[in-house]
Automatic annotation (TrEMBL):
This is Riboflavin biosynthesis protein RibD. Residues 191-317 form the CMP/dCMP-type deaminase domain. It is an enzyme of class 3 (hydrolase). Its EC number is 3.5.4.26. Keywords: NADP, Oxidoreductase. Converts 2,5-diamino-6-(ribosylamino)-4(3h)-pyrimidinone 5'-phosphate into 5-amino-6-(ribosylamino)-2,4(1h,3h)-pyrimidinedione 5'-phosphate.
């Protein structure tokens, strides 16, 4: 299964990734750099091209000690695997090779984006962050392997330098967020069901860990693509299920609910010990007509999971996307 790819870049207003000077140009502000650090902490591998290593000499490490400790508590290494794409040996003095060797390994790979991702998948990598530079972004976007793009526009003009480019494709805007003076634009690519289900799987990564319950993410989307609600396990309370918290936020009289789709990383529960109302029942009560899920509930905490069967018996269309099962399982690695 191909890993999920998040491409991340900061650009100037005029679309440049860097200026033409040999000095490293940091485009976005401290708050955005901290956000990028959090994104790094959420992946299994960070990919850059040799051009970026030569130009910027990055370390490619999770900077925050708290985030590194959190990764260790989740059974991961303190910082993701560092991957440099190059057809040549990397300068042995590069910081990606000399620094942080106690917290992350570095590998040098070559090949097409598909081949590189296949090799990484073979090493258990499920989430990848591609950080650039210009040639690598263009190659990954052109190969159609980018699932999510996080583009930050910094408030300056540069005039000359490497540009952020791709090849013709439509992107779907998920979110715009002002971060101090920077603006984050979040896009996804691909067909609607895969996009929204991958987004639900990303929300599952936000769940506070629990030894006795699953980490699940959920997005409720109207037929016109409007997000009606999002949720993840234990969001407001330790007993919360993702679908339950998402549906808590929707107006039950909203006329868009019968035409809406509920995307969930794990099959909605059909039996439950923690609370009297199951998520399958919450979905039926909300009148939602379609459910898309990645992972069928393994029979760990209940005898015979029957959420999907209950929904189908009540006339709800249930679609399973097993190609996203690794992504759905990732925050549940201890299972
Ligand atoms: N603003 C941002 O967010 C951001 C982030 C990162 C970088 N940047 C900027 O981007 C610029 C660097 O961009 P760039 O286009 O010059 O370089 P790049 O994309 O970082 O790296 C290009 C190099 O990577 C290697 N490469 C790429 N794809 C490969 C593949 N599939 N297999 C094997 N090797 C592969 C090749 O190296 P070899 O020649 O060694 O084979 C190629 O020359 C710098 O100015 C940097 O500051 C900006
Ligand atoms: Zn549930």
């Amino acid at each position: 299964m191909r890993p999920h790819v998040l491409a991340s870049a900061a650009v100037s207003i005029d679309g440049f990734l860097d200026d033409a000077s040999p000095r490293r140009l940091v485009l976005s502000g401290a708050a955005d750099l901290d956000r990028v650090d959090a994104e790094r902490a959420g992946v299994d591998a960070i990919v850059v091209g040799a051009g970026t290593v030569r130009a910027d000499d990055p370390r490619l490490l999770v900077r925050s000690a708290d985030r590194r400790a959190d990764r260790v508590a989740r059974g991961l290494g303190p910082s993701p695997l560092r991957v440099v794409l190059s057809t040549h040996p990397v300068d042995p003095a590069a910081r990606v090779l000399t620094e942080g060797r106690d917290v992350a390994d570095t590998v040098v790979l070559h090949g097409s984006p598909h081949e590189v991702l296949e090799r990484l998948a073979g090493h258990g990598v499920v989430r990848v962050m591609v950080e650039g530079g210009a040639a690598v972004h263009r190659a990954f976007l052109g190969a159609g392997v980018v699932d999510e793009l996080q583009l930050v526009v910094a408030p300056r003009l540069v005039g000359e330098g490497p540009r952020f480019t791709g090849t013709p494709a439509s992107a779907h805007l998920l979110e715009t967020r002002a971060i101090d003076a920077d603006v984050l634009l979040r896009y996804r690519f691909g067909p609607a069901d895969a996009r929204w289900l991958a987004e639900a799987c990303s929300l599952a990564e936000r769940c506070p860990p629990s030894p006795s319950a699953f980490s699940v993410g959920c997005v409720v989307v109207a037929a016109d693509g409007t997000v009606l609600a999002t949720g993840h396990s234990r969001r407001d309370d330790v007993l919360d299920h993702a679908e339950e918290v998402a549906l808590r936020d929707v107006d039950r009289s909203d006329p868009r609910l019968p035409g809406a789709t509920l995307y969930t990383s794990l099959e909605p529960c059909g039996q439950r010990a923690s609370r009297p109302v199951t998520c399958a029942q919450h979905i039926l009560d909300a009148g939602i007509g379609r459910v898309v899920m990645a992972w069928r509930e393994p029979p760990l905490f209940v005898g015979h999971p029957s959420g999907a069967a209950r929904l189908e018996a009540a006339g709800v269309e249930v679609v399973e996307c097993p190609e996203l099962v690794d992504l759905a399982r990732r925050p549940n690695r201890h299972r």
